[in-house]
Write a structure and sequence with these properties.
- The protein is of the alpha/beta class and 330 residues long.
- Helices cover 47% and strands 12% of the residues.
- It has nine helices and eight strands.
- The chain has helices at 2-26, 51-62, 74-87, 103-115, 143-166, 201-225, 250-263, 267-279, 306-320; strands at residues 42-46, 66-71, 92-97, 122-125, 173-178, 230-236, 290-292, 295-297.
- An eight-stranded mixed β-sheet has the order 3-2-1-4-5-6-7-8, sandwiched between helices.
- Strand 5, helix 6 and strand 6 (230-236) form a beta-alpha-beta unit.
- The structure holds NADP nicotinamide-adenine-dinucleotide phosphate and 2-acetamido-2-deoxy-beta-D-glucopyranose.
- NADP nicotinamide-adenine-dinucleotide phosphate (NAP) binds next to helix 2.
- NADP nicotinamide-adenine-dinucleotide phosphate (NAP) is lined by residues 46-47, 49-53, 71-73, 76, 98-101, 126-130, 147, 178, 180, 237, 239-240, 242-244.
């Protein structure tokens, strides 16, 4: 029983990868159209110091948004800010420390951000890790689940009042969650969210990305039912050549390199759908979508399961220490 439970997630992940590569072989990447300037809008991009997050931060800054890069490396963050400012002298971009693997750091980040009295129009939940060896966050959560999902779950909830206040019915604020095609093969195990019984890095990554989709749909439904002007969408960037793949084992690295060179998207291409979701006038008032290559598409059947969404929400609240509150009341 143990062998299949270890090998299956790996096989499933590679199969999804192949499918995405086939798509990328035959389909061009979506290109971001020219958007109107967005001066005065404030955006937070988690993991915005490199990879797709950096490209997203850079693009939103060029549109006139005030961008806060939220990341766990001050050195990288400040370097990213400097690089964006070199291209764009008037760009409003800054770094603020956030370690998504620490609930305390998330609270501190939000407190500091709120202390400045800025509005918040766009939150991009982009940071993530993949295929890390079995390890835990500061609070003892399995790292993929804790950082990719629970960290963003808490961050989003703590920033929700600012997002609600900054939106209006003809100009909604936007939450964008970066998931992945791996969510299609993700299995959410509510009895063992932390993968304690049998750890598979592949399974844990896919589960964290599925949790992000379930959470986003549930949040959108709750916001809509209460009439709040906040839109939540999920973005799937495709396969993109970034440091995310640094934890692949050596043989897989050797295969990945030429394949990435031929078929992976560049970080700027990978970021294009998130930028679209964050800035496109066509996305005004649109929420609860799964966007891939600039278009709406279906996510996995499981991701639409409303019971599962509600159960996950309740467990997540308990894990990060949030009151379930009236959100859970249907
Ligand atoms: N690349 C792909 O093919 C692909 C496919 C599907 C989905 N995605 C998703 O796209 C998103 C962006 O990834 P990427 O490909 O651009 O990879 P990346 O270049 O490795 O970027 C990930 C970002 O997350 C940050 N991060 C990691 N741990 C953090 C923590 N504890 N607190 C705060 N920030 C943290 C990283 O900062 P440090 O490195 O400084 O820690 C980095 O800035 C991820 O959510 C990923 O799952 C990527
Ligand atoms: C290319 O994109 C189209 C439209 O999204 C899709 O129907 C088709 O399956 C894609 N091609 C491949 C090989 O995936």
């Amino acid at each position: 029983m143990r062998l299949p439970t270890l090998i299956l997630p790996v096989l499933k992940l590679y199969l999804v990868g192949l499918k995405v590569l086939l798509y990328q072989l035959f389909n061009k990447s979506f290109t971001v159209p020219v958007f109107p300037k967005q001066n005065g809008r404030v955006a937070i991009v988690t993991g915005g110091a490199k990879g797709m997050g950096y490209e997203t931060a850079r693009h939103l800054t060029s549109l006139g948004m005030h961008v806060v890069i939220a990341g766990n490396s001050e050195e990288e963050g400040l370097a990213a800010v400097q690089k964006i400012r070199e291209e764009n002298k008037k760009g409003k971009v800054e770094f603020q420390f956030l370690d998504l693997a620490s609930l305390k750091s998330i609270h501190q980040f939000v407190q500091t951000f709120k202390g400045r009295g800025l509005p918040l129009h766009v939150l991009i939940n982009n940071a993530g890790v993949m295929l890390v060896p079995e390890s835990q966050t500061e609070d003892g959560f399995e790292l993929h689940l804790g950082l990719n999902y629970l960290g963003h779950f808490l961050l989003t909830n703590l920033l929700l009042d600012a997002l609600k206040r900054s939106g209006s019915h003809d100009s909604c604020t936007r939450i964008i969650t970066v998931s992945s095609a791996t969510h299609y093969v993700g299995v959410l195990n509510l009895q063992d969210l932390q993968s304690r019984s049998c750890y598979s890095a592949h399974g844990a990554y896919a589960q964290s990305k599925l949790a992000l989709v379930l959470f986003s749909y549930y949040l959108q439904q709750k916001l809509t039912s209460k009439g709040f002007p906040v839109m939540v969408n999920v973005v799937d960037p495709g396969m993109v050549n970034t440091d995310l793949y640094k934890n692949l084992c050596t043989p897989a690295q050797l295969i990945k390199r030429p394949v990435a060179w031929l078929l992976f998207r560049t970080p700027a291409e990978g970021a294009s759908t998130a930028i679209y979701a964050a800035a496109s006038p066509a996305m005004e008032g649109v929420g609860g979508c799964y966007l891939y290559n600039g278009r709406r598409t279906q996510s996995s059947t499981t991701s639409y399961d409303e019971d599962l969404q509600a159960q996950l929400w309740r467990q997540s609240c308990a894990l990060v220490g949030l009151p379930v509150g009236d959100w859970s009341a249907n």
